[in-house]
């Protein structure tokens, strides 16, 4: 590898203008003047990965510190080959100068595809406007050959201003030969192009540390002390906190416990204060999972996870956030921009906000509205980032087709988007929900959906809700009906895939609710379809059937045979099991337990219906994280009989024409007294779910479409739709 400490100067070429898509907490187009010189947002600098082209500085912006949108279409704002000796740039840290006139950025000079994890240099950058940067490379072994000739790692530099010396201190980790990673510091020279002297050790781990290895330091002045967050490799590796009265010495570990709230490996902590608040955000890179975690604190020692409030349209690696003023935010947006990536949102309460479509390539916006919205006089209430305006304003007539809206970037020009609006009935529930089970209650004469509460990272939800309707289109949230942490003593996590049955026992209606918790199946009982439900006290299914070695005990389905009145429970992931329920409905007749021989399309999510003497068994194929998640079916002549699998047995699958993906884990409902059926299923959140990668599998939405049979009793393939069904006509 070529080693150099040559100072390089450069200026960025003019890039295209942009408008960035942002969905939450944006600043109103009409109310931005007062914030121009005040902190009005945040600048996030980061890199994205270890592959060629990913080790480069990228920029995103936010107005609230929680919701970020990438600038420059998530492409680098600086050419790594121009500013580094290796061709790769990682771990950028940005700092506002003490005089408010300059900005400083430091980064790791490392190209993993060519160097592995060994490097020798860091990068120092300076700017007066956040757009034009001049910089230099500091090669440690070449600059300090006496003490540091054997250094083979120079990682994750950061900068802090030392008021005592009135200098910028740069701190970073280094590793010599086979020694541990140690956090060092040195002061930058006046021009911020190099170091004044040889680095000195900044942090000394406790004597009982078994590895002494520490990286990714991040220092924050707080209440007269200096808080050093860092990744310690000893004990339980993670983000640890050391505190000192002095910037350059005396750091003592507060606790050997992790400050971060993850159980998986993390690195690259970055902490920043929220504007106009006494609260701080500590974020870090959960690098083995490809995600970031955000936590919040007011004392910098006790943090709470706020991931559900955070959104990003990019996947960052180790980066930092800096508050910016309104003018700075305008400057960033106006310089690193594209007209095909709108930084705007429609905020009307009449919208289904999760399903708004911004198509920058074709300059189209689609606004799905809720029931009863008057499209002849509808105001989308567009809001924009500072420096962007939109016309027309107020109510417009969307009944005659798309309305032309002009978005203007201050001083640069216009772009016209054709904006359409329609009443789309799918999804039927607002928010993220999945695995829907549907019930018609004879007691109340209403329909109920019992879903998994979705949107929790890695399917980590812990409570269940239900929703009621008179017409299958208008649904009312009836609240939480079972909370694992409060109501269940044998499990408190992974609340998944419930099902319910209404039974009339001794003249009284009872409701038996079967649910997954911690990969086991339980049952709770209530006198009403909306609860309160009382758990039976023990898991009903916490074992595998004989002969089964893999899979999970999840996804129950309960079915009452209209021919006999007997009830059955089905379950399984990787295998499908079934058994007759005892009369108490909270235990099974183990003598009847069997597994079904299904082809290799079976994954999970069994659902059974009865029609015209035939028992239809439906199941989901593939993985819920896959766009190809789909439903198939087979038939039998009894609830525990042998299955016949038709050649063409797709019930529902993805529709690439409408970009509806991952249609699976269904239930079905027959309208009482009629041969009229509907399929209830979940899909990826539309339209962005398929772009979310793995997390699309826990950001799902519940939909309903018509289920039909042909003359021979075969299920016709259901086409998933955005429009959904029309409301049932009430008798």
Automatic annotation (TrEMBL):
Pfam families: Glyco_hydro_43
One Gene Ontology molecular-function label: hydrolase activity, hydrolyzing O-glycosyl compounds
Family assignment from sequence similarity: Belongs to the glycosyl hydrolase 43 family.
Record GO biological process: xylan catabolic process
InterPro entries: Glyco_hydro_43 (IPR006710), Glyco_hydro_beta-prop_sf (IPR023296), Glycosyl_Hydrlase_43_Enz (IPR052176)
Protein name from the UniProt record: Family 43 glycosylhydrolase
PROSITE patterns in the record: PROKAR_LIPOPROTEIN
Domain of life: Bacteria
Keywords: Carbohydrate metabolism, Glycosidase, Hydrolase, Polysaccharide degradation, Xylan degradation
């Amino acid at each position: 590898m070529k080693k150099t400490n040559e100072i390089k100067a450069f200026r960025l070429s003019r890039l295209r203008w942009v408008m960035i898509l942002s969905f939450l907490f944006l600043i109103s187009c009409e109310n931005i003047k007062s914030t121009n010189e005040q902190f009005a947002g945040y600048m996030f600098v980061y890199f994205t990965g270890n592959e060629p082209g990913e080790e480069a500085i990228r920029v995103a912006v936010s107005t609230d510190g929680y919701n970020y949108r990438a600038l420059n279409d998530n492409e680098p704002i600086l050419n790594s080959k121009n500013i580094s000796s290796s061709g790769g740039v990682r771990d950028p840290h940005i700092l506002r100068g003490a005089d408010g006139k300059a900005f400083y950025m430091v980064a790791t000079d490392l190209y993993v595809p060519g160097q592995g994890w060994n490097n020798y240099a860091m990068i120092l950058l300076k700017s007066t406007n956040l757009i034009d940067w001049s910089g230099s490379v500091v090669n440690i072994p070449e600059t300090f050959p006496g003490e540091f000739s054997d250094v083979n790692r120079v990682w994750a530099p950061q900068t802090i201003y030392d008021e005592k010396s009135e200098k910028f201190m740069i701190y970073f980790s280094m590793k010599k030969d086979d020694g541990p990673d140690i956090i060092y510091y040195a002061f930058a020279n006046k021009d911020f192009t190099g170091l004044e002297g040889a680095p000195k050790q900044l942090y000394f781990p406790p004597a009982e540390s078994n590895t002494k290895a520490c990286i990714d330091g991040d220092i924050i002045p707080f209440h007269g002390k200096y808080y050093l967050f860092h990744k310690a490799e000893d004990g339980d590796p993670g983000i640890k906190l050391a505190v000192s009265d002095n910037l350059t010495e005396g750091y003592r570990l507060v606790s050997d416990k992790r400050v971060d709230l993850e159980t998986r490996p993390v690195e690259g902590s970055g902490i920043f204060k929220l504007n106009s608040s006494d609260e701080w955000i500590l974020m870090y890179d959960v690098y083995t999972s490809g995600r970031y975690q955000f936590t919040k604190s007011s004392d910098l020692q006790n943090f709470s996870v706020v991931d559900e409030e955070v959104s990003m349209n990019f996947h960052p690696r180790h980066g930092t956030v800096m508050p910016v003023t309104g003018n700075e935010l305008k400057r960033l947006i106006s310089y690193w921009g594209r007209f095909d990536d709108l930084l705007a949102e429609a905020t009307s309460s009449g919208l289904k906000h999760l399903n708004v479509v911004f198509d920058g390539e074709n300059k189209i916006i689609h606004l799905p509205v809720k029931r009863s919205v008057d499209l002849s006089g509808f105001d989308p209430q567009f809001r924009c980032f500072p420096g962007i305006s939109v016309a027309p304003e107020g109510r417009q007539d969307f009944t005659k087709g798309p309305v032309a809206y002009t978005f203007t970037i201050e001083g640069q020009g216009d772009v016209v988007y054709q904006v359409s609006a329609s009443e789309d009935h799918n999804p039927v529930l607002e928010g993220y929900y999945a695995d829907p089970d549907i019930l018609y209650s004879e007691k109340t004469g209403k329909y109920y959906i019992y879903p998994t509460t979705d949107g929790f990272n890695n399917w980590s939800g812990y409570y269940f809700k239900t929703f009621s309707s008179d017409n299958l289109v208008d649904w009312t949230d009836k609240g939480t009906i079972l909370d694992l942490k409060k109501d269940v003593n044998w499990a408190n996590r992974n609340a998944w895939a419930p099902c319910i049955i209404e039974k009339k026992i001794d003249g009284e209606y009872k409701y038996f609710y079967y649910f997954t918790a911690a990969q086991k199946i339980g049952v709770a009982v209530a006198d009403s379809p909306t609860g309160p439900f009382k758990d039976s006290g023990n898991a009903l299914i916490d074992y595998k059937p004989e002969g089964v070695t893999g899979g999970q005990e999840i996804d129950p389905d309960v079915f009452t045979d209209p021919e006999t009145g007997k009830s059955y429970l089905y379950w399984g992931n990787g295998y499908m099991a079934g058994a007759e329920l005892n009369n108490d409905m909270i235990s099974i007749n183990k003598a009847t337990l069997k597994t079904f021989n299904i082809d290799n399309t079976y994954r999970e999510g069994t659902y059974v219906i009865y029609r015209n003497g035939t028992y239809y068994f439906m199941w989901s194929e593939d993985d819920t994280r896959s766009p190809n998640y789909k439903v198939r079916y087979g038939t039998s002549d009894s609830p525990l009989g042998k299955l016949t699998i038709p050649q063409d047995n797709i019930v529902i699958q993805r529709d690439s024409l409408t970009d509806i993906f991952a249609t699976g884990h269904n239930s079905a409902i027959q309208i009482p007294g009629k041969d009229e059926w509907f399929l209830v299923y979940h899909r990826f959140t539309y339209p962005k779910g398929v772009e979310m990668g793995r997390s699309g599998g826990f950001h799902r939405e519940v939909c309903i479409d018509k289920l039909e049979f042909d003359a021979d009793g075969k299920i016709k393939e259901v086409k998933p739709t955005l429009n959904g069904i029309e409301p049932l006509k009430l008798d």
